[in-house]
Amino acid sequence: MRVKANGLWIEVDDAGPRNAPALLLIMGLGMQLTAWPEEFVDLLVRRGFRVIRFDNRDIGLSDGFEHAGVPNVPLAALRHSLGLPLQSPYRVRDMADDARGVLDALGIVRAHVCGASLGGMIAQHLAAANPERVDSLTLMMTTTGSRRLPGPTLRARVALLSRERGPSREAWISHTVRVFGTIGSPAFKPDPAWFRHRVGLSYDRAWRPTGSTRQLLAIAADGDRSPLLQHVVAPTQIIHGIHDPLVPVANGHDLVARVPGARGDFIDGMGHDLPMVLLPRFAERIAENAARARATWVADQAPRVALAG
After folding, report:
1. Which CB contacts under 8 angstroms, 24+ apart, belong to 75-78?
2. Rg of the chain on CA atoms, in Å
3. Sign of CA dihedral 155, 157, 161, 167
4. Quick one: which H or E segment has residue 192?
5. In 3D, which of 112, 100, 118 has the Cα closest to residue 138?
6. At what angle do helices 209-222 and 118-129 cross, to 10 degrees?
7. Where along the chain do its domains lie?
8. Is 233 exposed, middle or buried, given 0-12, 13-18 or 19+ CB atoms closer than 10 A?
């Protein structure tokens, strides 16, 4: 279904009991809501969540920004390397406003939030600017954007900025398979035929390559989010692959150090993807973190109940 959020039409998938605690999943760069596997959604619903996925702006079936044109990526990369400001059609904080708008459209006052990669950057903005809306926060394979942290390996950077060899469906599928072969988990490689099939389904649902480029520019323009993290009050879980070549694991350790009370789960053999074999582990960490939020709420309410009595 589509909802009006922050002035845009945003495609949303809403699963699980409507009276269950809401869990908002925010996906990463160029990825549609379907990049959160149905199997993962099922695991989370079985753990008692109402699971909400959505297509970020400019991706999937949500409103696009084709009118803004295609950014000059080499020029933007040069300006970023020199520390010069970048002009972007929208910012990551705008995407966080979209996420809050999705909650508003669904009538959800508070939610647990989980973001992966760019989705984790969006989630940082959402949690810092709207602490009263976020019960718990899970950040997966993401970063503050600090320049003092290690960036992608050269091989991962080349893969991310590469383009498909032709305009056909098969060319795009092969390109995506190559990219994830570079940035994905070395210890948890998917079955090639199964993965090509999933990539094909994504292409058939919505192919929006220029949206990915504009989202990439939004990331570069966002800068360092470290100052925001002092405003995050929700219990926070960091999940990061030890072998992530796109967002090296030092970024995850930095988040644990900067977010008050954050916990880290650093997974050997994991890269920059969501291996099917690890989905139960991810779901368990999200559920444990949500339980921390409930325990904190109960502890906060106890003195008030005593005073009222």
Report:
1. 76/217, 76/220, 77/161, 77/220
2. 19
3. positive
4. helix 192-205
5. 112
6. 50
7. 2-308
8. middle
Cβ 183 vs Cβ 272: under 8 Å:
yes
Distance (Å, whole) CA 212 – CA 206 = 12
| Beta pairing class for 134-140 and 236-241 | parallel
Taking alpha carbons only, the member of 153, 109, 158, 162 closest to residue 132 is: 109
| Per-residue pLDDT at 284 | 98
- pLDDT above 90 (res 74): no
What pLDDT does residue 304 have?
Answer: 42
Q: Which amino acid, 273?
A: D
Tally the residues of the chain: 309
* CA gap 182, 246 in Å, rounded: 9
Rounded to the nearest 10 degrees, the angle between the axes of helix 279-308 and helix 38-46 is: 30
Q: Which residues pair with 14 in a beta bridge?
A: 52
Q: What is the DSSP letter of 229?
A: G
Tokens of 177: 């398979």
Q: CA 173 to CA 170: how far, in whole Å?
A: 5
The model's pTM: 0.93
Measured in whole angstroms, the distance separating CA 192 from the mean position of its chain's CA atoms is: 24
- Token couple for 71: 């950014």
Task: Please tell me whether residue 60 adopts helix, strand or coil conformation.
Answer: coil
For 2-308, CATH gives 3.40.50.1820
Task: Report how far residue 285's alpha carbon sits from residue 96's, in angstroms, rounded to the nearest whole number.
Answer: 23
- The pLDDT tens digits for 177-217 are 999 999 999 999 999 999 999 999 999 999 998 999 999 99
Give CA torsion, residues 243, 244, 250, 254, to 10 deg.
-130
Instruction: State the residue for tokens 């006052």.
Output: 109
d(CA 108, CA 130): 13
Cα separation, 251 vs 73, whole angstroms: 24
Q: What number is the average pLDDT over the span 251-255? A: 98
Q: What is the DSSP letter of 189?
A: P
